[in-house]
Specification:
Number of strands: 10
Distance between the termini: 84 Å
Length: 360
């Protein structure tokens, strides 16, 4: 009976392996990768004399504008990710009107595939079937390469060269758009990421702060949207994770700012309220990020939850709880669901009117 149970387990694992690998590496996968190369990257919200879709945004500083952001933007079902955070690609999110992208960097060596295959081999060995593991190490000769993934590359990965080129193309085509990139660095991939950014041609668009001491960082003046557009420095890059520390204590890669020098945020495990996770004054930070998503009971991204949370009224209700500081960045899963873009547009119109009313 024990042998039969193990065989059943083995069959289930084999089916799981087959399903995942078929989904990830079926004949349609290469076609899917090619499709993102030819997408029309003209912004749907572009208008003459506008800054991120509104003329009233232009006189606001970049940290006064509300930026709609995509959480784990590299992870989409369109790009064949397993348990993806989004239905459609980050390129389509940019076209639709999202101006912030959260992207995870990693080094890929086939980790998930190796884990699943080795597990099946071990089970075969336990029941005495030829092909079981002999206890030796699997071939570790694969060269690790930079990828944009979430936890495991074989569960989904975007080619950084293609993604960064597409972001550059978006900026090439849309000269009145300002974009924020926020990278989570995994597997000590900071150097690889910096090299990929450098080779993509993006650096010509990157805005660079001119200060690096702690006092100046927390009190520095941020440029207006119009000045970023006039200077053609329309890309702000932030990063945290392996290899990144405060730019007050390390020499940060040129053009990449340490996220937590400038960002406070809500707890990413809480889908309600507006309390910041920092112990210091939230107003000391230029950006206040609202993490606005909720995983399902298995801690996986949930389109059902996003459908509800991304509604205009739900966003407004949560903003109404912000009595200390109103967020200027809102990150969501399944960006194509709900009304965050409409909410952000309306919110930015109100912000501009308040700014005008405050002038002497």
């Amino acid at each position: 009976m024990a042998c039969r149970a193990l065989l059943c387990t083995l069959v289930l694992i084999a089916l799981a392996v087959a399903s995942v690998l078929t989904w990830r590496f079926g004949p349609w996968y290469e076609t899917g990768k090619q499709n993102s190369e030819s997408i029309d990257l003209t912004a749907a919200t572009a208008c003459e004399g506008c800054c991120n879709g509104l003329t009233s945004n232009c006189e606001l500083t970049v940290n006064e504008v509300l930026f709609p952001m995509v959480h784990n933007a590299m992870s989409s079902y369109e790009d064949y990710f397993v348990a993806a955070n989004n239905n459609e690609s980050l390129e389509k999110a940019l076209v639709a009107g999202f101006r912030g992208l959260m992207i995870d960097s990693c080094l890929c060596d086939g980790g998930l595939k190796k884990y699943m295959v080795d597990g099946a081999k071990d089970l075969l060995g336990e029941i005495g079937v030829a092909g079981g593991s002999d206890g030796s190490e699997s071939d570790g000769s694969q060269v690790k390469t930079l990828g944009f993934c979430h936890t495991y590359c074989d569960a989904g990965v975007r080619d950084p060269n293609r993604v960064l080129r597409n972001i550059k193309k978006f900026l090439d085509v849309n000269r009145n758009e300002v974009v924020i990139l926020e990278f989570e660095i995994n597997d000590n991939s900071l150097t690889d990421l910096y090299e990929a950014i450098d080779q993509s041609g993006l650096p010509k668009y990157v805005w660079r702060p001119t200060v690096n001491n702690s006092t100046a960082l927390y009190n520095m003046e941020w440029p207006t949207m119009q000045s970023l557009i006039d200077d053609n420095t329309r890309l702000l890059i932030f990063a945290h994770g392996d290899g990144m520390q405060s730019c007050t204590t390390m020499s940060c890669p040129e053009g990449i700012m340490y996220t937590y020098d400038h960002f406070a945020q809500t707890d990413d495990k809480s889908s309600s309220g507006c309390d910041a996770t920092v112990s210091s004054d939230v107003d000391a930070y230029a950006y206040f990020l609202m993490n606005h998503w909720k995983n399902d009971d298995y801690d996986l991204p949930s389109a059902t939850n996003a459908q509800s949370m991304n509604k205009y009224d739900e966003l407004q209700n949560r903003f109404d709880t912000c009595d200390v500081r109103v967020p200027n960045v809102v990150a969501v899963d399944f960006w194509d669901l709900g009304e965050l873009l409409t909410f952000a547009k309306d919110n930015n119109i109100v912000r501009a009117k308040k700014r005008t009313a405050m002038r002497p």
